[in-house]
Structures are given as C-alpha cells and as structure tokens.
Write a structure and sequence with these properties.
Elements (H helix, E strand, L loop, with lengths): L3 E8 L6 H13 L4 E6 L12 H12 L5 E3 L2 H4 L6 H12 L3 E8 H6 L6 H7 L1 E5 L9 H12 L2 E4 L8 H9 L10 H10 L4
Parallel strand pairs: 1-2, 1-4, 2-3, 4-5, 5-6
The protein binds adenosine-5'-triphosphate.
C-alpha cells in the first residue's frame, strides 16, 4: 500500500507569517501531501527566539486553523533541552509505524546551513527534504552533497513556490517601528500580537 506523504514545517515562527503559509500550502499541493504539520521549536539551537514559545505556538495555531490540511504539534515544547529536528522526526517515524513518509519543508536559506544541523546524516535517512524558493537566496546543494554524498542527494526535491520577501526579523522591526504589517502577517496573528503587546 502507498504510504501517506506528510509534510513537516519546522521553525522558530517568531512570528509565523504569510511566507511560511504560502510555501507550506504550495508544497502540499505540488507534492500531494496529505497534510502539513507545523512544529514550533521551543529552544532552537541556531536561533534564540525573541518571545516565549507559548505565544509562538498560539500564533501558529491561529494562522493555520482555517486550513484543513494544516496541523500543529507542540512536541518540541514538551521536550526538555534544545529542539533538534532529528529527535522530533525520529519520534514521528516511530509513532507512524512505517505507514508514513515525511517531507521536511525548508526555505532555500535553510538548505545552505543544513550541514550544521544536529545529526543531519541521520535525519536524511528518516525524512526527505523539499526546498522552497526564498527571494534573494540561491538554493545551493554543493555543501549538502559534499557532506552527505550523492545517494543522499536523491532525498532532496525542489518546489517552484511563490516568492514572498517576508521574514520574521523584518516583521519584528516593523512592529517595533509602528509600521503596518497588514498582508504580511495573517490577520488573526496581527490581532494577537497587538492584543498581547508583542515585539514592541
Ligand atoms: P527570522 O527572520 O527570525 O530568521 P524566518 O522568517 O526565516 O525568521 P523561521 O521561522 O526561522 O522564519 O523559518 C522557518 C522555515 O521557513 C525555514 O526553513 C525558512 O527557510 C522558511 N521560510 C521563512 N520565511 C520564508 C519565506 N519568506 N520564503 C520561503 N521560506 C521561508
């Protein structure tokens, strides 16, 4: 029987924005994924978060709630210590008992630093990667190939996603500078940020 194809969107989501949502939806559609699971990192090893994980989780939930193909998992918030994707995917693989195939969706910027991910050799055996476009960044497989070899290369796919020049860093700055974030942040997320007074 064909395995269920499940997308994974990991991130700091500080805050989640329309750039994340558009790549998740367009990869889901292009690769016929049954769903995309958003997994906020509690304690991202490469990128300290600006605000508490509980706020980030709530915003992810608000942003994804209206899409029936999107789910949110708080598995990394429940675990002690740094949020390593390899531990997360390992536990998902165990839970699904060989019925699912996991596709980790990342932006082109993340591909370029993938060799620095914790136990990346092991992670590549547990899931496949789908690389989304990101404005101003060239997706370069050379470092990945050098580190993981030709065989691993077959587990990487590229997707022609719409390019939105949006980043959480820019959004945080806009909020601090009292500039509009309309059409950059999902409406529900913007309302939450305002209500809680985040990023000021
Ligand atoms: P920051 O500005 O704080 O570095 P970010 O906007 O890159 O944050 P993350 O939560 O770190 O957001 O990103 C999670 C994943 O989403 C990463 O794989 C990243 O490459 C991807 N991503 C984020 N924004 C975009 C975008 N606009 N286009 C394509 N991919 C994106």
């Amino acid at each position: 029987m064909a395995k269920e194809r499940v997308g994974i969107m990991g991130g700091t989501f500080d805050p989640i924005h329309n750039g994340h949502l558009v790549i998740a939806e367009s990869v889901r559609d292009a690769f016929s994924l049954s769903k995309v699971i958003f997994i906020p990192a509690a304690d991202p090893p490469h990128k300290p978060a600006m605000i508490d994980a509980v706020h980030r989780l709530r915003m992810v939930w608000l942003a994804t709630n209206s899409n029936p193909y999107f789910q949110v998992l708080d598995i990394e918030l429940k675990r002690e210590g740094p949020s390593y994707s390899v531990d997360t995917i390992q536990s998902l693989v165990e839970q699904c008992e060989d019925r699912c195939e996991f596709y980790f969706i990342i932006g082109a910027d993340e591909l370029n630093i993938l060799p620095e991910w914790h136990k990346i050799e092991e992670l590549v055996t547990l899931c496949r990667f789908i690389i989304a476009k990101r404005p101003g960044v060239e997706a370069d497989m050379s470092r990945v190939c050098e580190m993981l070899g030709e065989a691993a290369q077959r587990r990487f796919y590229f997707c022609d996603t719409p390019e939105l020049e949006i980043s959480s860093t820019d959004i945080r700055k806009r909020i601090r500078d009292r500039q509009s974030v309309r059409y950059i942040l999902p409406q529900e997320v913007e309302a939450y940020v305002r209500k809680e007074g985040l990023y000021l």
